[in-house]
Amino acid sequence: MKRFLDLPAPALLALLYLSWITLGALLLMIPAASTDSITWSDAFFTATSAVTVTGLVVLDTGAAFTTFGQCVIMLLIQLGGMGLMTFAVIVLSSLGMQIGLAQRQFLREEMGLSSLGGLLDIVWVVFKVVLACELIGMAITATVFVPEFGWREGLWQSAFHSISAFNNAGFSLFSDSLMGYVDSSIIIFTTSVQFIVAGLGFAVLSDILIHGKWQKFSLHTRLMLAGTLALILVSIIGYGTLEWNNPETLAGLDSTGAKINAIWFEAVTPRTAGFNAMNTAAMQDSTTLMTMVLMVIGGGSTSTAGGIKVTTAVVLLLATIAFFRNTGKMRAFGYSIGLQQGLKVMALLTISLFVILLGLFLIVATHEIDFLKAAFEVTSAFGTVGLSQGATGELNDFGRAIICLIMFLGRLGPLTLGFFLASKTVPRIQYPEGSIYLG
Fold it and tell me: For labeling, which of 9, 223, 232, 287 is most exposed (least CB within 10 Å)?
């Protein structure tokens, strides 16, 4: 037991997530959880997708699972979205128990924070924001679902989709996700606002709630808000321009209102919600490529979203600007960003690209699947997005295992993966600096 506790925090965190995936798969294999018999492969894939809040599916969630099975999936989504250690800390704090240094280290790794300061405050902000947003989202969407399905089914639809949306999971009880509600502004905008807010990250939400003024926001909050706004604007223009005349996506919608809803929704969902309001598989290749870039970027640190994170993309851009200006310094909003941050960003990007490319190679080498569709699926898995162009359903057990591993790594975070590859040692020997030719 002592050896188990002596493992590094990221290793224990990985084992914790793996144990919940296994437990979830076991519960989904209970006959009462499914409308028909499912395989172990189906159960493990669904449980992994739920705990990693990805949303890729091999079964129709609404048709293949009973209410009990859907409850299991919803619980796994909530646990995976908020974070397993977050739940544990909330329970322990509520009981008046002391949160030790080891628990704080696990929590820091899970939330992607650089220090232990203010952890418990962020945890309670997480809990309050999650509870409030999910209840509000459920109440608003119920105004559409209850009249359509009745009180019992309508409230269940509202609760499931609200939890799935806020946790950026992308699971839906409808076989076509939210395509049937593309003309419902209430469903489209309520759902999108939920996963945008959650995707900002709980550190940003805490900063906004506590300070409330731009001048008092931290550099991280400023970069996150500015980066998110820029990505949304670029995405809206991109989707509107590229898909407006596509008869299988925007051009096939009946009204201008539905087109506007679809453009907005598709522009924000790749980071990293996984719902779709139009046929993702019918998008232009250029739109598919743009979506893949957005899925790799993802949302914010300390959020329910995946990807390399918006701030990472911003720092990469700032580093590029600093290089061309030959200043040697990265600056933003009156702050400077240290070289160490730039090195972390480069390590994160390198590991992320390695995972994506290796996964893509294994899928393409073992399946007869269109290359772009395979790349889209692998990218979606890594970014824990859940958008699909249909390739997931064509995977054999080996392909499913690869996608599950990518979802798992994408949720834990490439930097956590990098923890196992790096050791903090002080070099005993100093070497002379050499020069190499680049470019």
Answer: 232
CB 77, CB 169: distance < 8 Å: yes
Give the tokens for residue 222: 């400023």
Whole-angstrom CA distances from 62 to 80, 149, 177, 318 are: 20, 14, 10, 44
- DSSP lists the bridge partners of residue 331 as 336
425, with CB counted inside 10 A (0-12, 13-18, 19+), is exposed
Q: How far apart are CA 235 and CA 224, in angstroms?
A: 16
Is residue 112 predicted with pLDDT exceeding 60? no
Find the range with the poorest average confidence among 28-37, 248-257, 287-296, 413-422: 413-422
Give all strands (DSSP E) within 280-352, no chain letters.
330-332, 335-337
Which residues are within 8 A (CB) of 59 and not within 5 positions of it... i.e. 6 or more apart? 38, 42, 46, 65
What are φ and ψ of residue 242, in 5° steps? -80, -30
Peptide bond into 272 cis (omega under 30): yes
3-state secondary structure of 310: helix
Taking the C-alpha atoms of residue 88 and residue 103, their distance in angstroms, rounded to an integer, is 9
Contacts 24+ apart (CB under 8 A), 19-27: 20/51, 20/76, 20/79, 20/80, 20/84, 21/47, 21/48, 21/51, 21/408, 22/47, 24/50, 24/51, 24/72, 24/73, 24/76, 27/72
Phi-psi region for residue 170, left (φ > 0), alpha (ψ -120 to 50) or beta? left
Q: Enter the pTM of the model.
A: 0.88
CA 238, CA 88: separation in Å to the nearest integer?
A: 42
